[in-house]
Amino acid sequence: MTRLFGTNGIRWRPDSVGDQNFAVELGLAIGTYIGEGKTVCMGMDTRVTGPMIAAAVTSGILSTGCNIIDIGVVPTPTVQYGVKALGTDGGVVISASHNPPEFNGLKCIASDGTELAREEEEKIEVIYFSKEFKLARWDKVGRLSHNSETSFGHIDRIISLFKPNPDWKKLRVVIDCSNGPAGNFTPHILRSLGCEVLTINAQPDGLFPGRMPEPLEENLDSLMCAVVDAGADFGIAHDGDADRAIFIDEGGKYINGDESLAIFAIDALSKKKGKVVVPVNTSRVVTDSIVEGGGEVELTPIGSPIIARRMGRVDAVFGGEGNGGAIFPENMLCRDGMMTAAKMVEILATGDRSLGELIAGLPSFVIKRSKFSCPDQLKGQVLVKVREAMADSDIIDIDGVKIEGGDWWVLFRPSGTEPVFRVTAEAGDGKMAEEKLNQFKKLVEDIIQDLS
Ligand code: MG
Questions:
Q1: What would the pLDDT profile of 238-291 be if each residue is shown by its tens digit?
Q2: Contact at 8 Å (CB) between 395 and 403?
Q3: Neighbours of ion ligand 1 (CB under 5 A)
Q4: Which of 69-73, 246-250, 343-347, 417-421 is predicted least confidently?
Q5: What is the mean pLDDT of the chain?
Q6: How far apart are CA 189 and CA 22, in angstroms?
Q7: Does the pTM of the predicted model rise above 0.70?
Q8: What residues act catalytically?
Q9: Cα(75) to centroid of ligand 1, in Å?
Q10: CB 32, CB 129: distance < 8 Å
Q11: What spacing in Å lies between the alpha carbon of 420 and ligand 1's midpoint?
């Protein structure tokens, strides 16, 4: 069966599907899955196609007798908060996260506020492809209501998790809100925590005139300059739907997401020892820091829904991904860029070191990545051949094949969404990382060639 949902919901170009029947049928499938008389919480990011898609999805969901509480233009984690706060049976987010402006997407949220598990997404896919939608009788169609209080609830909830006092250092922070919904959230939260806040790209604008919505180093020139020009203590950049936050240090230097994840893990473990959940492709900057901090590393397959659920099961003290997606269990079992920003404020306002100094204290590793085109039907065979070739090594097969050397590791993994096979290598220095990557790239290239 063809898949609809990728690792992060469904993404598409709304002008490439002919008409919006696709979105209506998605709504019909989701409503049929949730059920007549049940209720979903719905929100969207700032994309210009958001209202159009939301209207089509709304029509589909209401047709099945499922109710909708629309909470408006909000970050993705605010919908997740809304599902729990409003006690709905699920949630729907219309967002393409970090993708370019011409894309949009849809993600489903489970009744516990976590991103819907893959097995549940499959149930929606079965309904969608079979077109066996359950339509409600005219007097049982779903009701649509609007709620703008949920946004304030989420903001208040995050602020309530911190106890700023006169001993906190007064920090100057520049926030780049990516023209997404975070502009109405993060600046307010950080001001409430006592920061002097400057913003760029804080006006919601679905054309993303300020920068592309992915917080990559090449997209954050303005923020890096603004941090230096303003003499700020640090900078924050969200992705388009603000479930992630990336940081810039006081010198205007881009901090990669693995390093900030390590800082958060160390902080969490300094308060409570326990498990920290990270995916199998996480840098040793993070895993070494966890061990150093007296914690236990719990590795999972790649994907934030998997990390979040595992955190709940093992009662983890912290978890997340190296792309700026941090999960703080005291908040919610989901990535939340605003909570992540607030946490960095707490760490820097109560500690005696700057962000740059904290980063300089971390172990240093270099990751190198490569990908090969590989038809979907060959992926499984390539993985089997890789496993055979590496039979003499200790294989970690949580997701793909991972081999750990003394001071390096390599991960072989087929993409779940593209006809691509990836090889990732990490080592203590760039030269060895490059060497290992080249060595194992050759192995995969030869295997794909043999099989083709
Ligand atoms: Mg996102």
A1: 999 999 999 999 999 999 999 999 999 999 999 999 999 999 999 999 999 999
A2: yes
A3: 97, 239, 241, 243
A4: 417-421
A5: 96
A6: 37
A7: yes
A8: 97
A9: 9
A10: no
A11: 22
